[in-house]
């Protein structure tokens, strides 16, 4: 009687069929989990941008034209872009400086450990507090009959508005923006401050460097890409703000979002296609800012590894 000779299978061949189905199923499951994200981006980012670009190159009859982009060179629209850029730069600069100083105090300043969670939690809330509630809060606090204004006038004899302050002016709006810019800066610069290694400071001290020299020659050069990237992110954040400035000043403060709103929803300045061109200009400016932010963040992460 002959016994059938069995050929042993290779361990690789025996495991391969069992691993591949599970791997493929896991891979399919991972991609399935990304479907909501890609669907959200398609519906609320890609398709709106395609719609804006298409409408920006059309006139009221739907014919192709460059007139909408040519109209961006008119004085009132140039003034709107200039005002938005200046306001965004000032609020981003103030938010960057104040946020870095606040971050240094909270993270590296030697304060009690319970202080940081409180500030980080508050920053997470305050960075999203904007629009009509924020405008009302500042009017009730620093308006002409606001709480702080009345207390300064009646208790300390100081007329805030008589001294030249005006909440509804350029600097008043910039101060209002600072309420959500500073906590946002704290949130996004905190990881960079945490990334400063204690060994760097100890090595600088061993080599005889003073505290000022350490920050000037070691810490600030390492933090600079992160700080500059955060500044660009704050600029983009302020540039796209509409509800806060509109609720605070109405249509008197002609930043680009308000001019765009007037062109699309207004009864007098109604030219949706020009509004689409304004929106495309905003998208380009914000895309450049965010791209530079990503580049600088990548550079900062490489330095801090």
Write structural notes for this entry.
The protein is an all-alpha fold. The protein has helices at residues 11-33, 35-56, 67-70, 75-108, 115-126, 132-142, 147-154, 170-194, 198-206, 211-239, 243-249, 256-265, 272-304. It has a single domain, classed as Orthogonal Bundle (MetI-like fold). Helix 2 packs across helix 13 and helix 9 packs antiparallel against helix 10.
SSE inventory with pairings:
Elements: H1 11-33, H2 35-56, H3 67-70, H4 75-108, H5 115-126, H6 132-142, H7 147-154, H8 170-194, H9 198-206, H10 211-239, H11 243-249, H12 256-265, H13 272-304
As a percent range, the share of strand residues is under 5%
Number of helices: 13
Sum up the overall morphology in one term.
globular
State the CATH architecture: Orthogonal Bundle
What would you call the quaternary organization? single chain
Which structural class best describes the helix and strand composition? Answer: mainly alpha
Short description:
It is a multi-pass membrane protein. By secondary structure, the protein is an all-alpha fold.
Summary tags:
13 helices; single chain; MetI-like fold; 305 residues; mainly alpha; globular; 74% helix
